[in-house]
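Protein modeling request. Please complete all fields; requests missing the sequence field cannot be processed.
Requester role: graduate student
Desired output: 3D structure, token encoding
Chains: 1
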Amino acid sequence: MKIVNPWNGASIADVATDDARAVAAKVRRARAAQPGWAATPIRRRIETIARFRERIVALEETLARTLTHEVGKPIRQSRNELKGLLARLDFFLAESARTLRDEKVLVDHAGRLEERISHEPLGVVANISAWNYPYFVGSNVFVPALAAGNA
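Delivered output (151 residues):
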């Protein structure tokens, strides 16, 4: 697949595309890895997402320039998208553990009844992000999915 800068038509790169078999193989690997990830304590999953955030900060200018070249938006908008992404990651890092913990909604000692809400991973989550805000919009899908124990 040819990647072209929409602003000036310049060729950026040629990247290999996956066929149906390659995608199916990746899904199988994700399914195989998901139970182990789900069994990983939430604290460690959050730490992994925090390391992802650190990498974004370390590569921020490179990511902004790549976004500008691939999408055609001004560099200021690309940098702002990354600032928004970092703020979104901060939100997920701060709120995921509290949001995902079990919650007792009813305790009836006389009737020896307890009701609770728990969150269980679904499995493998796929995302095809918006072309114009791929970092920010995509993070709204894959970050909470990973925090919750999905692959």
